[in-house]
């Protein structure tokens, strides 16, 4: 890879001069051609005849063509050199800006790229006393390091492409000038990348490393990615990746396996760029249609006769789709087509299963996260989980029937047979949450225990896709700034709450005899946390509470039941509690500090603000006790240690209030309250559930109730300090908030407990 000193100190002037010199040649060749034609050819015409003249004029005609070709070739080389200079100059400028930024932030960048934090504050007591300082410095260092690496990768790819273009013998053995020369670095890199991909599993480790460097450097470049995939074609794309993953899986600790792991990510991100219709150029609808057709075809992945597995194209593609954010125009039809195929034949992905005949796994997902890739639905749903626009369109749109070849069947219906006769698929949410649907173990391992574990990957990916569909961001987005909810998203949340909070919904996620969708409980909790305003409206019936965009119009009974089921998951419990406390704190601040014309006393407004959140907290307390003592799906320590993402959910809960209310508030609520609320949430979840006897007696919420009272009083204290209230008034309002929290928490817990009869 190009080094930092080399790029930083490189004198690019001679390259610019060379480009200018080559750029001047076409005009000179044109002048020579005109002079040759005038002084030689035209001079001889009409004065020389016979066989020798005929042969001479033919030779001179070829010479004239050579002048033309020489001019064309010189112009193209000039453009290539100019492009190289432009790119190198841009990378050099970016590198120098990063080095200046590093110095300004007290980082030292060594010549080998190693970065050392030399901030003098590390030697002061402030550093050790402030954990936030260490986090801030690490984030800056990581960002700087990744950006430096990116610039060097881009410069290296451009350097190698320029070298390959200039070393190419464009004239061939004839030594004649011609026009077969590269005109851009993208064209060179496309040829290099497709040539390696065409070798499939015959490519060397070094060649795969080069392919990865080219793809990674150009993954955001639509001209390169479109050219690469267009030249490779859908069939070869899937064929070469299928054979590479099958080969690499035989040696999971080898360099080759690591190269294929990296290739999976680079192919995914590059495909997302190439299929984005908002970018120019992009792959055509015909290319996309052919990819869908290939998805329903089987691929031979090994010449070994003892290797019987022939995956469908979608089983191969599923591994690539796990990486990248895809446009709905590309990804939604793939998801719809795959459902049509699976509904027509629920055993399609396992009808040629090698399980029971092979000792090793087979994978299209060498990254190893979320299964082996044997079930293509897992990969497709993961792709939707990173593509919120496509996920929303898929889950909120109509069910569309497709022919096997990937084209739409205008008059067709999607009907599925689970052994009790065919029935219509009501919606894609209905399809994936049907209790009779069998989730394919996302592994080819013949070990039955491993296969059983692998059935969790599909439902987990379904949860990820629903998170993206309802939130407008990828499921693994770590920020707090959230887009407002659309009407379609809010409607989908209503359907989800009705589904899992309605009859039979609890059995899907917490059933004692097996819960097929238990792995998606954390995602359902995240959805509730993202819709905390709607949730608090649902449990309280107060439609005046602020929501973030369109309202989900949640039913009270369904909302309570939904929270009770989902809250039994430690991760969901944390997200809901964190968002609830932040949202409630925002409501308390609004009640105490917001401008209002109402004559309702502030104490009553505070009680009203505390009530919905305390009700949610009560349901959560009882749900936690149920998980520990009833369904026995978790231990107290599972809830107590689950605090990594508290800050994210506190920030989102705060934003749901501050970003949605129209009544002015004093200052920036989200800014001043997040740190205090985060501390309060951590204290709230670090508790013990009731004893089993207390749980059986219906008193499993006492510890949680104390925490709800404390957090309500904390909210008043923060809002009071923020609004400049005197100590006595704050104390009185804290008492009011505490009483309301105690009563509402008890009501919420008892309502949840009553569901058990």
In words, what does this structure look like?
The radius of gyration is 32 Å and the shape is globular. The longest helix is centred in the first third of the chain and has 54 residues, at 51-104. Helix 2 packs antiparallel against helix 3 (51-104), helix 8 (222-232) crosses helix 10 and helix 13 (328-344) runs antiparallel to helix 14 (376-385). The strands form 2 sheets. The protein has a two-stranded antiparallel sheet. It is mainly alpha-helical and 757 residues long. It has 31 helices and 4 strands. The chain is 64% helix and 2% strand.
Mind sketching the topology for me?
Blueprint lengths: L3 H6 L3 H32 L6 H54 L2 E3 L5 E3 L7 H5 L1 H37 L17 H14 L6 H14 L3 H11 L1 H15 L6 H20 L10 H11 L17 H9 L6 H17 L31 H10 L2 H9 L18 E3 L4 E3 L3 H6 L14 H7 L2 H15 L15 H15 L3 H6 L10 H10 L1 H9 L15 H11 L3 H24 L8 H29 L5 H5 L5 H13 L10 H17 L6 H5 L5 H22 L3 H28 L3
Antiparallel strand pairs: 1-2, 3-4
Helix pairs in contact: 2-3, 3-5, 5-6, 5-7, 6-7, 6-8, 7-10, 8-10, 9-10, 11-12, 11-13, 12-14, 13-14, 13-15, 14-18, 15-18, 18-21, 19-23, 21-24, 22-23, 22-25, 23-25, 24-25, 24-27, 24-28, 24-30, 25-30, 25-31, 27-28, 28-30, 30-31
